[in-house]
Write a structure and sequence with these properties.
There is one protein chain. The strands form 2 sheets. Strands 1-3-2 form a 3-stranded antiparallel β-sheet. Strands 5-4-6 form a 3-stranded mixed β-sheet, with no helix packed on it. It has about 130 residues and is an alpha+beta fold. The protein has 6 helices and 6 strands. It has helices spanning about 5-15, 20-30, 35-50, 90-100, 120-125, 130; strands spanning about 20, 55, 65, 75, 85, 115. It folds into 2 domains: about 1-70, Arc Repressor Mutant, subunit A (Orthogonal Bundle); about 70-133, Dna Ligase, domain 1, CATH 3.30.1490.190. The structure holds zinc ion (3 copies). One zinc ion binds near residues 77, 79, 80 and 82. One zinc ion (ZN) binds near residues 18, 66, 72, 74 and 85.
């Protein structure tokens, strides 16, 4: 494995949260200033192609990256943007129903499920769309 790749994997392994490509590039340049941003991006793409790394969209911002071995789904509050990590098994029933009803295999890791966390629900006066259905 080349040095940029090894550094990328190490950064992702050490990250308790999530890293955007930009954050990863900054971390790698702090450790190895001679590695260019485009090299970091190219290696990130390559790691993703190899299935070592996956990305998720947690909101309107840039995608964030995880090691594939640590991949999981996310619930994100649209108000306070708190992120809750959820195991794949959480979507098992939905996965079965989507295949049974539509022949569609969902990929719940790729995008977060957006909603309102408990705290924001308690403070919200716009629960209409959640309670009506
Ligand atoms: Zn994507
Ligand atoms: Zn919230
Ligand atoms: Zn995550």
């Amino acid at each position: 494995m080349t040095t940029p790749r090894r550094l990328l994997v190490r950064c992702l392994f050490e990250a308790s949260g999530h890293r955007t490509a930009e954050e990863l590039a900054a971390e790698i340049q702090a450790r190895a200033p001679d590695i260019s941003i485009s090299t970091v991006y190219r290696n990130l793409e390559e790691l993703e192609r190899l299935g070592v790394v996956v990305h998720s969209h947690l909101g309107h911002g840039p995608a964030t990256y995880h090691l594939a071995t640590a991949a999981h789904g996310h619930l994100v509050c649209r108000k306070c943007e708190i992120q809750v990590e959820i195991a794949d098994g959480f979507f098992a029933d939905l996965r079965r129903r989507a295949i049974a009803d539509f022949g569609f295999a969902i990929d719940p890791r790729h995008f977060a499920v957006i909603g309102l966390c408990a705290t924001c629900q308690a403070a919200a006066d716009d629960l209409g769309d959640f309670t009506a259905g």
